[in-house]
Structures are given as C-alpha cells and as structure tokens.
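Lab notebook, bench 4. The sequencing result for the construct came back, and we need a structural model before the next group meeting so we can plan mutations. Quick request posted to the team channel:

Model the 3D structure of this chain.
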Amino acid sequence: MTDSDDTVADIDDVRDRLTDLFADAEAAGVERDALVGLLTAHLAAMRGSVRLPLSMPPDRAREFTDRASDHLGERVEVELLVSEDVVTDLELQLQVFEAEE
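Done. Here's the predicted structure in token form:
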C-alpha cells in the first residue's frame, strides 16, 4: 500500500466517522444549524483564520467561483447581505480564537 493509498483510506475513515457523527447528532435532536456552526468554528481554527461567510446556493456559488477565478490576486468588491446567519457564523468562528487566548 502506498502513502497515497493510506491517505485515501484515512480520508475514507474520517468521512465515515463524520457521517456516523452527523447521524447520531440528528437522532439526538441536535439542530443542523448548531452542528454547522460548530464545524465552521473548528474549521476556522484548523485554518488559523476567520473567513467571511458567503452563503449562496450551489449554482450561484459555481457562477461566483468561475467569475472570481478570472480575478485571482485582484481586489474585487462583493455585495453581501448581512443576515443574522452571517453574523452568527462569524461570531462562532471568533469564539474559537478568543477561547485560545
């Protein structure tokens, strides 16, 4: 087995465990938004940076990604509707960093 095979097996194992965790959380009545918020916060910690959430449907995200890829390294303006979800997402991410201080 190569290192690449090990990596794929590791990723498959993590994905399986996450799938089980999500199913257990759903069965326990954990709200999906709470789970998403928790995962978002931990991803921020793993990256070492807070990211501005750009919530959009997948088809709009694909369009945005395709257009943005033409402007790598450039400063662009993006309109953002500041919703309660955006603020909550940012707050959850910040809480992870503030807890580490």
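The CA atoms of residues 36 and 91 lie 13 Å apart.
Will bring this to the meeting.
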